[in-house]
Amino acid sequence: xxxxxxxxxxxxxxxxxxxxxxxxxxxxxxxxxxxxxxxxxxxxxxxxxxxxxxxxxxxxxxxxxxxxxxxxxxxxxxxxxxxxxxxxxxxxxxxxxxxxxxxxxxxxxxxxxxxxxxxxxxxxxxxxxxxxxxxxxxxxxxxxxxxxxxxxxxxxxxxxxxxxxxxxxxxxxxxxxxxxxxxxxxxxxxxxxxxxxxxxxxxxxxxxxxxxxxxxxxxxxxxxxxxxxxxxxxxxxxxxxxxxxxxxxxxxxxxxxxxxxxxxxxxxxxxxxxxxxxxxxxxxxxxxxxxxxxxxxxxxxxxxxxxxxxxxxxxxxxxxxxxxxxxxxxxxxxxxxxxxxxxxxxxxxxxxxxxxxxxxxxxxxxxxxxxxxxxxxxxxxxxxxxxxxxxxxxxxxx
Length: 398
Hints:
Layout: H1 3-30, E1 32-33, E2 39-41, E3 44-46, H2 53-65, E4 71-74, E5 78-81, E6 109-114, H3 117-120, H4 127-137, E7 142-146, H5 154-165, E8 172-177, H6 179-184, H7 190-193, E9 205-209, E10 212-216, H8 226-231, H9 259-275, H10 277-280, H11 286-304, E11 308-313, H12 317-326, H13 332-341, E12 343-345, H14 348-354, E13 364-365, E14 368-369, H15 374-386, H16 392-395
Parallel strand pairs: 6-7, 6-8, 8-11, 11-12
Antiparallel strand pairs: 1-2, 2-3, 4-5, 9-10, 13-14
Helix pairs in contact: 4-15, 5-11, 11-13, 14-15
């Protein structure tokens, strides 16, 4: 071995060390820390995680002193819209009908929709408004009651039906189904799942015991109790039922002292999570089984009061991109399972037709549909409902 080669070999470790130090400094400079000392690289949180005690305390304090609140604490559902605020009527849901009596009118079709933010949309521009207009334009005198609430999981939408919706005896019930809501069914404390949330509440959740739904964390703790629960979350008796809390993620380790290594770990973990999407949503997994059972029970209870039950699939941007590229979803098995127990309305074709010639990013804003997508969804839902021969009797009433 000549001297030149020997010097190169001796210099290599030093060069690698310098590269590591430079990259480590760069990651630390680019990243930032939140109020609870969680380090973030863009939208990626680096391990070890810290429980969001300060953030929870801040949200609860803001909620306590706020004069106007978009969402309010609800012991049965977790949270609900503030009645009379942000477009919600005095009963706490969206409706442009002046008649919101519990008894359905004899001269109008009453449609009630339930779900999360993709269902709730906005009072003026949500797809529910297009649905109502399309039905009326087709000669069906109709009113749509929108019980959708931002941040809801499937279980909360179902519980909102039980608490508020069933009493209105709608002729048609539509449940807005989005894949991510299945994962939210396994969540109890929203801020653990989404540290940047603005919702300072807990939610109930269902467990499956002997294939029956068992509700836990009800009534939900009052907001003022949350900082204490978060601070000692591992000691909370229900912590084992929180999908997004894994004690090892909060534990320090030698490599996690390095922000660079922690970033590598996060990137590898994200890739692994994407690859595991299909298996996570398999029909025989906890998320899939629970989702199917909730929908089955929802349909059963809706039909018990005389409502016709539909599921509306509302895809996220990433899911719609996958469907656009492959013609299928990584959770197709779950969607097929839902289709076996309820009529599923799938507006994907209408959505992609509306987006033809444009990138899908144009039709999503902060993860939600823009005003350009909502008309296509509402029209697709109306078309599916109008295809039912039973609608003829409502046409005759106009």
